[in-house]
Specification:
The chain is an alpha+beta fold. The chain has a single domain (about 5-185), classed as CGI121/TPRKB (PF0523-like). It contains eight helices and five strands; from the N terminus they run ββαβαααβαβααα. It has helices spanning about 25-35, 50-65, 75-85, 90-95, 115-130, 140-155, 160, 170-185; strands at about 5, 10-20, 40-45, 105-115, 135. Strands 1, 2, 3, 4 and 5 form a five-stranded antiparallel beta sheet that branches. A hairpin with a 2-residue loop joins β1 and β2. α1 (about 25-35) runs antiparallel to α5. The longest helix has 18 residues, at about 170-185.
Length: about 190
């Protein structure tokens, strides 16, 4: 489990597989985990994400938003969704990242907290209670499998990609997604 320092907190993005028989049970477990005032957790559907870097940037933007009182949502777990999606409406972010009752979904467990050890322990306990199975290298496979959906999700055109002359396609798309995420913080 990779936990790194971000601003005055620690961040955690862990990819893995999750089978959901009861979405209500998953949401209840997440809600219970989020009752700890110094930690925040969210589960997001992996498919619309370009890279692990996107998750780190989304975490950074979320933390900075709460530290500077420029957050869009009152709830940090929703702020994560908004920042990752580059959208101002929770409804749109949920549509993009919502989990479904389905077996072996590729997901990312995202978290942040002030205490690294406590964050790791709570994330492991939450993962166990959900039946979350950590799995690495999902981002590289995800991009090649779901590029079209990623482009549609963020409204990225071929012309925009082409403007990054000499860049690898994935790097150009990642830069465009990160730009949309950054612009969200500038919108008023």
């Amino acid at each position: 489990m990779k936990i790194e320092k971000i601003e005055h907190s620690f961040g955690l993005p862990q990819t893995g597989l999750l089978s959901i028989n009861s979405l209500d049970r998953v949401l209840k477990n997440l809600s219970l985990a989020n009752k700890t005032p110094t930690m925040v957790f969210q589960l997001v559907f992996l498919v619309p994400l370009v890279s692990e870097r996107q998750v780190w940037v989304g975490l950074l933007h979320s933390i900075q938003a709460f530290e500077s009182n420029s957050n869009i949502s009152k709830k940090p777990e929703f702020e994560i969704l908004l920042r990752l999606s580059g959208k101002r409406q929770i409804k749109e972010a949920l549509k993009l990242f919502s989990l479904k009752e389905k077996a072996n979904q590729e997901v990312v467990l995202v978290g942040w907290g002030k205490n690294k050890k406590a964050l790791k322990e709570k994330a492991q306990n939450l993962g166990q209670s959900l039946g979350f199975a950590p799995k690495t290298n999902l981002f590289s496979k995800n991009f090649s499998k779901n590029k079209k959906l990623i482009l549609e999700s963020y409204g990225i055109s071929q012309n925009q990609i082409s403007s990054f002359n000499g860049w690898k396609e994935k790097d150009a798309i990642e830069a465009l997604v990160l730009e949309k995420m950054a612009l969200l913080g500038l919108e008023g």
